[in-house]
Specification:
250 residues, alpha/beta, eight-stranded parallel beta sheet, 11 helices, globular
Length: 250
């Protein structure tokens, strides 16, 4: 099981450091991997706090080139000195910042090339779901996001299914809906990569909270969560880690 906290564009330095300390001091589940994704300016102080804790620090984004005249962008090679993972294709970058499926694929390849894990986010909008296109959209995200990924590097891929209509809205997908799509993701991976594909970590994200985590994490094809709002408070995030631990023990 894996529980990852995406802090998005939140927290000052003191708040980020305090949150990291609170999480590090409360994680006791040895059956659950934990990762956190602070905003860029606080990657170093958060990494210092979490050094030797076993908690992976990741970045929320990167560019797809290793170096060059790309003002304002951040190199995956530079990030690899302090990070173990990077998010790619989060819906807020796809829909607010206009990132294409092809660009997300380039970023995934760059993250892997730099030696880090790539968390590929996939998911449909409400209009796409109501039009019966949810699986098609998710498959397209997988196809383009993993276009350059062969089986030898699949072990550093995490797929996070995040229905856009559930992110930050307080309305989570039902456990049945989340399980159905995560199963479809796993089936797609198995068809593409064979047995290796079945072992990829598949997360659910979208309004996960202590009140629904047990039901979601108990689903056969959900290996944990990519958490937004509930990751900004140590107590609630640790409750989700504990829920993942209970699921792992079953």
């Amino acid at each position: 099981m894996l529980v990852a906290g995406n802090w998005k564009m939140n927290l000052g330095m003191a708040g980020a450091v305090d949150l990291a300390r609170g999480i590090a001091g409360g994680v006791t589940e040895d059956t659950v991997d934990v990762s956190v994704f602070p905003t860029f300016p606080w990657l170093v102080p958060v990494s210092d706090v979490l050094d030797e804790s076993g908690i992976v620090v990741g970045a929320q984004n990167c560019y797809y080139e290793d170096a060059g005249a790309f003002t304002g962008e951040v190199s995956p090679v530079a990030l690899s000195e302090i990070c173990g993972a990077v998010l790619a294709g989060h819906s807020e970058r796809r829909h607010i910042l206009g990132e294409s499926n092809e660009l997300v694929g380039l970023k995934v390849e760059a993250i892997l090339r730099a030696g880090m894990a790539a968390y590929l986010c996939v998911g449909e909008t409400l209009d796409e779901r109501q039009a019966g296109q949810a699986e098609t959209v998710v498959y397209n995200h997988l196809e383009s996001g993993l276009a350059a990924v062969d089986g030898d590097r699949l072990g550093r891929i995490v797929v996070a299914y995040e229905p856009v209509w559930a992110i930050g809205t307080g309305v989570a997908a039902s456990a049945d809906d989340a399980q159905e799509m995560c199963r479809s993701v796993r089936e797609w991976l198995a068809e593409r990569y064979g047995e290796q594909g079945q072992d990829v970590t598949v997360l659910y994200g979208g309004s996960v909270s202590p009140s629904n985590a047990d039901e979601l994490f108990a689903c056969d094809d959900i290996d944990g969560g990519l958490i937004g709002g509930a990751s900004l408070e140590a107590g609630s995030f640790l409750e989700l880690v504990a829920a993942a631990g209970r699921a792992a023990a079953v």
